[in-house]
## 1
Amino acid sequence: MSIRKMISLHPDVVKSGHVNQALGDAVHHAMYCAKMCLSCADACAAEGMDMSQCIRVCSDCADICETTTRLGLRRTGSNDHLLVEMLELCARACEECAAECETHDHEHCRLCATMCRECAADCRRAAESITPAS
């Protein structure tokens, strides 16, 4: 199963004959990034040290990624200005989360940082691929 496939099957996408691959990639990565951040936050909570900032940043990033995924999945109608803003916000949140995770020497933080950097790059590409209607 693929979220990209689901997007491509939406009737409005089928009618237009255009699948925004960059947006599909961003939605795919943001969906997984949200789960990675939640898992990292949970692992941080179990560490034997103060990881409160990492937990906060990972939790915020997970929420922003989830919201970005939801907006990016919607193909009925359009709200391109908001979608572009969410993609840009998601990229910033992912960069912040990656930077925080990179300050810790835990494998779960390393994996989370890698996913966040990939998600940020895809969100930026997707934002650039959308031309909001004036």
## 2
Amino acid sequence: MKKSKSLFLIITFLLSFGCALFVAMKVFPNNPFSGKKVGTAVFGKIQDGDIIFQTSESPQCEAVRIATNSKFSHCGIIYKMNGDLFVFEAVQPVKLTPLKDWIQHGRDNKYLVKRLKNATAILTPATLQKMKDYSQQFNGKEYDAYFEWNDNRIYCSELVWKIYKNARWHRIVKT
């Protein structure tokens, strides 16, 4: 009788621990057991001016994902400022978001970072500064839920495109 009571307690403990671990991994994806923790090694590879993509959880972003036939529904430009990484993004309102916070807003904290080919030749410090300066005119603007191509309101991919286009245009003119 004593053996079966001890066995019952051990099995109950193991099942309880397993359930708690499962719930913790679902609720807190960046926990020590998930293997998904965003480390400084990953952040060390990210560069100023990279473009970052994620899948957002909002119903509107789901519609964007379906309409574009893409697994991604949101994007922004990574800016390195005073040694910290931020994402300049078009949300309500357009703003600069710390990268770690931005990642938390995506589905399962997953994201993809892309870089221009020959980025070191194209994204010079002067060009990156022009991008950051040009970005300021959009800071605080309303999000464009109707996806109109104007500067009154702005959506995420429009923001990225206009900032890159403006920086490239200025670089060509001055060359």
